[in-house]
Amino acid sequence: MSPLTLIFILPLAAALLILIIPRNFRFVIRCVALLATFLSMLAAVHMFSTYDGRAAARGYQFVEQHQWAPSLGISYHVGVDGINLGLILMGAVVLFAATAVSWSIKTREKQYYILLLLMGGGILGAFASLDLFFFYFFHELALVPTFIMIGVWGKGEQKNYATFQITLYLSLGALLVLIGLIGIYLQLPAPLRTFDIVGLTQYFKAHPMQPGPQRWIFPTLLLGFGILVSLWPFHTWAPLGYSSAPTGTAMVHAGVLKKFGLYGLIRIALPLMPEEAQRWVYVLSFLCLGNILYCGLVAMRQRNLNMLIGNSSVAHMGFAFLGIASLSLIGITGTVVVMVAHGFLAALTFALSGYLRDEIQTLEISQMGGLLTRLPFIGTAMIMAMLAGCGLPGFAGFPGEALVLFGNWDRSATVTALAIWGALVIGGVYMLRAIRNIWHGEKEWPQISDAPTLWRRFPYGLLLAGLILFGCFPRLLTDNIKTSVAPVVLAVGADLTEDAAQTRAQSR
Amino acid sequence: MNLSLLTLEIAVIGLALAILLIDLWTPHQLKPRLGYVAVAGLLVILAVSFLGVGGGPAATGFDGMFVQDGLALFFKRLFLISAVFVVLMGVEFGGRIAMGIGEFYTVILLALAGMMFAASANDFVMVFVALEMISISFYVLVSFHRSRMHSLEAGVKYLILSALSAAVLVFGIALIFGAANRTGFAALNADGARLAGDKVFWLGMLLVLFGLAFKIASFPLQMWAPDVYQGAPTPVTAFLAMGSKAAGFVLVLRVLFAAAPALAAHWDKLLILAAAITILYGNLCAIPQRNLKRLLGYSSIANAGYLLLGVASLNADGSAAVLYYLAGYLFTLAVAFAVICIVTRESDDIASLAGLSQRSPFLAVSMTLAMVSLAGIPPLAGFLGKFLLLRAVIERAALNPAYLWLAGVAIIGVVISLYYYFGVIRTVYWSKEPADLSPIVVSLPMKISLGVCIAAMLYLGIFPGRVLTSATEAVKALKF
Question: The whole model's pTM is what?
């Protein structure tokens, strides 16, 4: 069995196992969930470290394929290349961390862990799948528990509205994606029809898709994936949804699930429909300015910490889209790095804000202040996370955002300049202001306590370690990503070589 | 005349009469148990249907009025399976029926025989006879709660509207006969090119479809479904949703694609419109419902709309998807109605499910899975059914962009439906006012049947290969 199968089967199997454990055995339930996610994380680390970077150009590794519904052209097919390698590692780590910080859930634990494991196992399966049907199938499997979890364990006054909104937006986005994916599948002549991503890519390389179908399939996919990744102006579900969600759900969704749309764009939409991609990236580059600037400004006005983090998370998605819109090797490589970095970052910030809410019962920034003296560990971790959110070098976000901006300079210097402004100035303002208002100050907090044991600190440390590791050694990611992104960029018809950029510059 | 073609139907009718006779010599308190006799008989007939008796290559009897082909056999098995679950629910429900439980089983079996004839109908006369056999049985079944106003009201509504639709159907058949001078599907198809241009034939077909719209509860004759679903005894509601609807669909498929494929090819716009309106009507009206059976009535309208997507695709993939969807729908509804049957007593309000997760975790999980499957979420049967239907519709989009809009309407419908299906799940697990927390004991036969249905839902959702192949084989009897 491929380690990939193991990585997502473990959480799903644990969910089934918990189903038959009586609900009074709370400790057993939690142990099963922790063990499964821990083993899944170990498998992911093992896969990451044994991935052969030199053989990457030859295609997917750790491949496993079985026939499933031959009459429909569906097979169970998993594999990794540089693009989903880092994502799966990040997803497995975040899932473990989310399970570990869920000790604060005291009601209906059994159902909570079942849903959390379904969510995590589902999305890891989606990232591992090389078959469009399972790609969608696993994402849908992960998506629905999200809604239920927000509806049941959610917090805050606007919980019901948030559930309603997130369900509506994300279901619609997912179904649009489904229509687009079926549309792609039907472009093949009947006897050759397959949902296999490898097969589809090869077929469309030899027989480019007709402009007619491209014209509706690409926008459908862009809209569907865009809604799932909170592309401006379809982002309004995200801040409210995350601030109402229970901590574990927000971590897995903001960290991992949301990357599904970006992954789909890079893996499917760009290489299969290059002509339409070329046309739509202009629109996309302006929409992602909406994310970076508009949502950044909105984040500045927030009075609630979770809403601030939620909006800043939406703003970060702007950089990911910007890299895709550059259609360049550097830019898209940057996008993948941003996806991995943001996964750790979003999970970490939501985990910490969840801790904070459990301790002080509020997340209104105006009621906080002076917390650092009582919460040295949590506070330090949060300040590091916030600085990472501003794009401080040394954290994984920095190489990602830098690559995106480099990649985009050639296409449009104005957009790049505005994006830099959004990242450095707007991001800096709200993050630094939040740090001052929350952690510094005179206020006394006699009642609260820091994460006491090493075990309680472990999940936060793990996520921070991920941020710092890939921040200091981005090559661990970028070498593999570059090899795998190259065919995508080639398919879109952009020039690969760095010389080409120089020639263009000289000819101006 | 080859009577062996009718083995299954004869066996079902024989079983019905046998139950009626045994009922005479059975002491009153044992009468509900007669259902187990019926179930055993049905299971034997089902097994026989797989042994190839009455099967084999497609064959016709009664001068071509009756056809036994793959399509007929597929539906007959569906009907037999749904009757098994309905009779089991009847046993569970038996205590609540004041008198005549033996007749209750008999009439269910007669309705089943009608559905099986409908699956084999190859002539408009046969269509009418089969439909009347179903309808008249249901007039009795729907109002079986003779002491309850709701049940009688539902019976009257069903009677009037069903009679109306039958009248329209007969009028349509008369026009068809007037235009073509024959009523056999094969003969009509052979003359298809000439008849497609004949306005009288055209109108006749339209009226026939109008009449069939009643059976499948689709626009424009969908109004009865919520009222009748709410008022009828729960096993009967289940049979209406699982059996009667499927019988309507096999007739729609036969009438469109066996009798008049040449005409059907021109009716894409009509079918698109009917499907779109049915989906939106069913889903939008389901939102405010508080009564569980009424909710499932509207959901049944919405599902008729989804199934019409497959019909409107006018291709083999679409019809195969209809068959697959109906198979998944059967098991899903069998679970939902079985839970309703066991749990609800006085009222069928959604609130009566409150606290079910504590009263019986097994029933709670069953109901949740049924709702999740209805909402079309993997890995259950409903997801794959909707996937196949959407695939068929989008396949047609290359010829007519209107199909893309239809797919759009369908996904809007699916998004809306999440709201009310999740509402039910929410009540099961997280309702605030659980009034009654007494544990519910589920009888062994019910446990087994629920387990079988859940396994089937998962099987159809995760391993579609075999059933899909047989559905694809079955629709080879049709022409597109």
Answer: 0.88
